[in-house]
Amino acid sequence: ISSTRSNRRANLRLFRKKGVKQETPDCTLDFKEFVERMAEHESSLTLVFNEIDVNKDGTLEP
Questions:
Q1: If you ran DSSP here, which 8-state letter would residue 31 be given?
Q2: In which region does residue 47 sit, left (phi positive, over 0), alpha (psi from -120 to 50) or beta (all else)?
Q3: Can you tell me the distance from the alpha carbon of 62 to that of 9, in angstroms, rounded to the nearest whole number?
Q4: Over the stretch 4-52, which tens digit does the pLDDT of each residue have?
Q5: Is this prediction's pTM over 0.85?
Q6: Domain EF-hand: where (predicted)?
């Protein structure tokens, strides 16, 4: 369990690394910060998806 908790904390630190202004000693993340980070990821994913959607039909083909 200790390693699982450590992994979660490490993942949270990585998640917070970009764009989060307030770092707390226990690496907590409030809902507002979570939503902001998710929105950033969504924007990045949209850009990537649109770039690899070759025929621009909203689907990815092999």
A1: H
A2: alpha
A3: 36
A4: 767 677 766 666 665 555 556 667 788 998 888 888 888 888 999 999 9
A5: no
A6: 40-62
